[in-house]
Amino acid sequence: MTRAVVAICVLLSGCASGGGGDTELGGGGRAGGSFRREDRVFIGESNEITGIAASQRMVFATTRDALLILDKQFGSWSPPVTVLDGYPGGPVSAMAADPIDDGVWIGTLGGIVYYRPQLDVLTTAVVAGIPAAILFDARDPLAGAYVGSAAGWSLVTRTGNVTPVQGAFLPPPSARVQSSNLNDVYREYPALQNFLPTMLRDEQLQSWPVTTGTKAPGSSEVWVGTRGNGVYRVDPLFNRAEHFPFGLLDEGIGALAAAADGIWMAGLGTGSSARSGITFASSDLRRWRWVEGSLSRPFRGARAYDLSVRARAAWVATDRGVVRVETQNENNARVWSLGNGLPDDRALSLATSSDGAWVGTARGLVFITDSLNRRSAPRSAVSATLAAGTAVRALLLTGDTLWIGSDAGLLVMASGDSGPHRPSAAAAESRLRRPITALARSDSEVVVATTDDLVRISAYDGQIIPRYQAVSLAQLRGITAVAMDSSTIWVAGRGGLLVITRDAGVPRFLTAPGDLPGEAYDVLLTRDYAWVATRTGLARITRLRDGTPR
To answer: Which residue among 14, 120, 242, 349 has its CA within the 20 to 30 Å range from the CA of 310?
Structure first.
């Protein structure tokens, strides 16, 4: 028996990719860390489906760089298996559900991948040629998968052993078990090919091309993947389809906002499918929603800088104006820009209240009065411009006071003030007269970020709080966002993420790329997780009891 180069990643206890023989990588963490896989979850653009397979209970779908897993029984997703977990990514040449263990086999340009979700085990093996067919022997399903390519056939076991197989020793046609593909589905249900474009239309009546499909074993249920709109379950007997979105519409994330049971994300407008909008994810990542806005697609190609969700309204500050969209009715979307009241198309920051939103732009600050019943975006809803000509990059509303981070430094405005003014703290602290990039508050403290420094201010008396002596911000290479709670301060930048304990001022740095998949643009803290918006997607980081990352 010959044995190919094999890597076995045991994700339950952690893994990293390997080679040069049979290798089991444990020790409690993935490559570059000592944490469990669920402690650091990374999710990217997931609407382009490259392969799909269905077992008795699971549906497996592949994207450019991840394997997605859906529990059919509950209609809920699991965290994806990504390139950071050992999944090789890239094009998929063949795909099959394992007939006995709810696992999946995937043919890639680098060989064959086997993943078993019950044990969270990923096995990769190199075979001759590019896999074009995967089949099993009904007489001996425990033997493994027979993988065929232009170079011949190989038997690959679930532990990664590879044995060349001559054609005469393949299972006879009557004993072969294979997952169906899209052509098989169309042969069994010939009318489906004509009905699918109508069945897969979204609320704006756009239909999405089918890229891959399969029939679930033991039923008439069909699962299809699309180019641009993720995964659908299709009933070919009654011509009905159900959408199961997962992951991001966009390649990266520019801004985050909290929801009662999860988070909202706004994109960078750079996705490969030219789709963009806001995305909801439940905290456990099992439920997802995509909101693109009305037929005009107001988010398409727009880079989000800030996001605020209040009641049913989501406000998004973008480089093409500010968008207000109903989260339960995406057709109700309004856009304000230079043409209808904003002092500049570049909306950089937001602070919402019960009657509207403060919007900071590249050339001043305005207030937009909200109306749930209005479907247009009238100029009359926009106030006169304050701090005219000044870029307003951060806004924080605390009680009746609006904190304003601008290129002219820190400004404040209380209810009844005629306009913004410098706080008393700015007279004694020169750093508060520099350009401000981010603001955050928790309990009695406000943190003000310049491009390369932090200033802590007492929210009660406006006095400067002494700086942390052991903290260096240089490795961030510019501060893009700040978040804080009662125990920690999280500072995002192009170089990664700095976490500081508030009581002792002890720093911990997460690098990008490395600990994070890309430079960080925003960070949101919840009790159990820190959510980080990065250039290449979303990072969910589990927090310890003291608030620091696991």
So the answer is: 242
Task: Write down the pLDDT at residue 372.
Answer: 60
- CA 359 from chain centre, in angstroms, equals 25
Strand, helix or coil for residue 461:
coil
In contact, 121 and 10? CB cutoff 8 Å: yes
Q: Which domains does the chain have, with CATH numbers?
A: 6-44+70-177 (no CATH), 253-436+443-471 (2.130.10.10), 472-550 (2.40.10.360)
Contacts of 314 (CB under 8 A, 6+ apart): 257, 264, 278, 291, 307, 308, 324, 325, 326, 327
Copy the structure tokens of residue 314: 């989501």
Measured CA to CA, the distance from residue 205 to residue 227 in angstroms comes to 16
Closest Cα partner for 479 from 519, 508, 443, 513?
Answer: 519
φ, ψ of residue 174 in degrees (nearest 5): -70, -20
CA 48 vs CA 64, 184, 268: distances in Å: 8, 21, 17
Quick one: pLDDT at residue 34? 44
Q: In what order do the strands lie in the sheet with 288-291?
A: 253-259, 262-267, 278-282, 288-291
Q: Name the DSSP class of 120.
A: T
Neighbour order of strands in the sheet with 409-414: 392-398, 401-406, 409-414
Q: Using CA atoms, how far apart are residues 324 and 278, in angstroms rounded to an integer?
A: 11
Give me the average pLDDT of each 10-residue run along the chain (550 residues): 36 35 32 62 94 96 96 94 90 96 94 94 95 97 96 96 93 96 96 92 84 95 95 95 94 94 94 82 96 88 96 95 94 94 98 96 97 79 97 96 97 93 92 97 96 94 92 96 98 98 96 93 97 96 96
Instruction: Give, for 184, the enclosing helix (H) or strand (E).
Output: helix 182-188
Give Cα 389 to chain centroid, integer Å: 35
| CB contact burial 525-548 (16+ within 10 A = b; e otherwise) | beeebbbbbbbbbbbbbebeeebb
**Beta-carbon count within 10 A of 550 CB:** 15
Q: In whole angstroms, how large is the CA radius of gyration of the chain?
A: 26
Task: Please say whether the beta carbons of 93 and 110 come within 8 A.
Answer: no
Burial of 237 (0-12, 13-18, 19+ CB in 10 A): exposed
Instruction: Tell me how far apart the alpha carbons of residues 271 and 250 are, in angstroms, rounded to a whole number.
Output: 4
pTM of the predicted structure, to 2 decimals: 0.90
